Structures are given as C-alpha cells and as structure tokens.
Amino acid sequence: MRILAGELFTARENLLGIHGGDAETSLMMAIMPDRVLFDRVICEYPQINQTYLSIEGDLPIPWVTSDLSVTGTIGDATTASKEKGEKILAALVAAWQKIVTEIYHYSQ
Question: pTM to 2 decimals?
C-alpha cells in the first residue's frame, strides 16, 4: 500500500493527509459516489512545523481533529478521483485477502 500511496499522492498528502483528504475521498468516490459532495470538498492542512514531533510517525504528539483543522478535513480532497479510489480499493482487498488467507492457514 505504501508503494501505491507514493504513486497516487503528493509527498505532502502522504505526510499530512490523514482525514478526509485525497485517499479517503477517492475511496468514497469509488464505493459510495452518491455520498461525496465534490463541489464542497476542500484542502486544509495543519499549520504545524514538523521537526522531531509529528502528528503521526516516530514521535507523535497527542491531538484531536480540532487541534489541526477548522473544517474537520486534514488533507487535500480537491485532488481526489474515482480512479484513485478504485486502485486503493483493489489494493485493500488484495491485502486483506492475503491477511485472511494467512490467518486461515496459520490456524490449520
């Protein structure tokens, strides 16, 4: 999935797009397009200077969404697409299939 993320999303989105951004909006466009109000999507990234501390990663700081976003979006949903969502969905299904198969075989 990391390789796919590197191909589909910007470095900034991969680092900071953690809620309602490109990946989540793209996935929703693929599985529930009627629920995505694309004329209302936005781009909002947290105004933080990530050095050693991060919102996710090696030395994460505790936070709630309202600490990072006025709107609730943390990422860039304006670049989302159904095509990206279909690629994400296929990668998720393949990964979960592999995991479930491995669990099944382990328990035999």
Answer: 0.84
